[in-house]
User: What shape does this take?
Amino acid sequence: MTTRHFLTLNDLSGQEFRDLLQRAVELKQMQANRVPHELLKNRVLAMVFEKSSTRTRVSFEAGMIQMGGSSIFLSPQDSQLGRGEPEEDTAKVLSRMVDAIMVRTFEHKIIEHMAENSSVPVINALTDDYHPCQLLADMQTFFEHQGDIQGHTVSWIGDGNNMCNSYINAAALLDFELVIACPSGYEPMSALVEANKGRVKIVRTPEEAVVGSSLVATDVWASMGQEEEQQKRQTDFSGFMVTSKLMTQAKTDALFMHCLPAHRGEEVSAEIMDDPDTVVWDEAENRLHAQKALLEFLMC
Ligand code: CP
Ligand code: NVA
Assistant: This one.
């Protein structure tokens, strides 16, 4: 049997994506009702983090424990990765010892090389280009609050970054329209936009992007690895903050999402983040449930 990896959402079919979301909802219910689901008993997940994390680490680690398995955290500081051992060699060795490898890294080609050299599933927990695990959680959250996303309009406000690229993939797989508002020079991957031009549109103002939108999503202006650009980006993204005023121009029941961590007063106003009705905390929680469904899908 060939090993299935999860490097981008395109490693799933649209049907598999929908099935996985349904399973995530079931697993969430089971966890809430304390129904045992030790589907990964004695299985081990290696977690390679070359960038910081709160949600991703805790959700994968808690998920493995809840499913009867365990995980091992590896960072460059305390593994041979930090002393120059190639990622490919690391993947070969880890896949002799564990049942799946989760990787958060910089260039997307690093994770591709790791997958090519791994005999167990490799999961993308964020690269410079994609963040597919977050999209599983975002889509689960949308389905829970508003039903199937097919035919809806979603707006992306801000940087055409790893999250935005993953939203484009989700739009294609789940059949929704995506309107992206970004400053010139901060567009998502051009090949992705081109391949999906029937459903993906780029505009220059957030106000244009949110018209008729059921979901308004954003992310930080400077991603991990771009810290030195923070100041320039703050100028370039001026006018791209998601505010209550902007949300009133979307559909009346439109949801706001942010993968977190959020910077109040930059890409999102404090008022939006601290709205008691926000779904961003559900969105964060769903990382756990959606990834448990993913781990089961890849490992069972
Ligand atoms: N959204 C997300 O991936 O959060 P962390 O960086 O905390 O893992
Ligand atoms: N675009 C952000 C997402 C963080 C979860 C980054 O890559 O830093």
User: Anything to note?
Assistant: Strands lie at 44-49, 70-74, 100-104, 122-124, 153-157, 177-181, 200-203, 215-218, 255-258. The mean pLDDT is 98.
